[in-house]
Amino acid sequence: MSFTEKKFKKLTKDNRLKKLFFAVREYLSGKKTAEELFILWEWSQEDHCFLKPSNHYEWGIFSEKLLQVMKRENLFLEEVPVDDEKRIRTPFPATVVLDNIRSPYNVGSFFRSAEAFGIEEIVLCGITPAPEQNPKVAKTAKEALVPYAYYQKTENAVLDYKKKGFSVYGIEKTSSSRSLGKEEIGFPFLLIFGNEEFGISKEVLGQCDQVFHIDLFGKKNSINVSTAGGIVFYELRKNYQEKTKNKN
Fold first, then answer.
1. What's the CA gap between 115 and 75, in Å, rounded?
2. Cα–Cα distance measured from residue 41 to residue 45, given in angstroms and rounded to the nearest whole number
3. CA 8, CA 202: separation in Å to the nearest integer?
4. Which pTM does this prediction carry?
5. What is the pLDDT of residue 49?
6. Distance between CA atoms of 113 and 229, rounded to whole angstroms?
7. DSSP-derived 3-state class of residue 167
8. pLDDT at 119
């Protein structure tokens, strides 16, 4: 397993219990093997007084007891420390294009944020890795995958979505870009993020109806592309909710 005993022992007692709790939940949902779970159990023996469960059902009971203990001790301050499987995801008419994003970690982070904020679809273009191509994408996404498509050329993806009536927006700092949140947004829209080093290609920028940037207040002129994605998703989701609320 990728998480070593050395790393585990460096965690605080509280976080060792949390690590064990999440491992039990992953085991119960089939995402972690019994062998991996038993290893973590052995590493964390000193941290609890529960007897080791012997079967799947008993691990389920153990998980609930452990959660109760951690909530009682205020180790989980949030009310729902795990994913809410009962929640119904509510997408809004926004599709994201990743224009030759190189890093699988950035791509995975985009998937995770897109799922959380209700992005309808992700379009992977060029060298952007898909979850089935690179396990690092799925690992970073933490299985928060949304529908996605692939195009070899970003320009072709933009043309196809324009034909469907999508507005096209780029996220890039240029001489003519406008501040995000201060302009009218048309729905549905295609939202383009570019390569970590080179940004959105010149050809694709030329296809955009408008290019937006995030206002920054430090010396650095840019932020990580997937970090920018989370900020933009939040702003645009809020914009959409305000619009639909006013219509109703």
1. 27
2. 6
3. 47
4. 0.79
5. 57
6. 8
7. strand
8. 97
Q: Which of 97, 112, 118, 117 is nearest to 191 (CA)?
A: 97
Closest CA to 13 of 40, 47, 51, 42: 47
Backbone dihedral angles phi then psi of residue 142, each to the nearest 5 degrees: 55, 40
Provide the 8-state DSSP code for 237. H
Residues 76, 82, 87: CA angle, nearest 5 degrees: 130
Alpha helices in 99-224 (DSSP H): 104-117, 135-141, 154-163, 202-205
Q: Which amino acid is at 220?
A: K
Bridge-partner residues for 94, per DSSP?
Answer: 189
Look at strands 119-125 and 148-151 and give their pairing: parallel
CA atoms within 13 A on the CB side of 108: 16
Task: Divide the 248 residues of the chain into consecutive groups of 10 and give the mean pLDDT of each group.
Answer: 75 82 83 78 67 79 82 72 73 96 96 96 97 91 89 97 96 91 84 95 95 92 93 93 75
33 contacts: CB under 8 Å, gap ≥ 6: 27
Give the span between the Cα atoms of 165 and 214, in whole angstroms. 25
DSSP label of 93 = E
Structural domains of the chain in order of their starting residue, each with its CATH number: 5-72 (no CATH), 92-247 (3.40.1280.10)
**Structure confidence at residue 10 (pLDDT):** 85
Cβ-proximal residues to 117 (8 Å cutoff; 6+ apart), any chain: 230, 233, 234, 237
Token pair 């469907």 in the structure block, residue: 164
Instruction: Tell me how far apart the terminal alpha carbons of the chain are, to the nearest angstrom.
Output: 51
Residue 179 burial class via C-beta count within 10 angstroms: exposed 0-12, middle 13-18, buried 19 and up: exposed
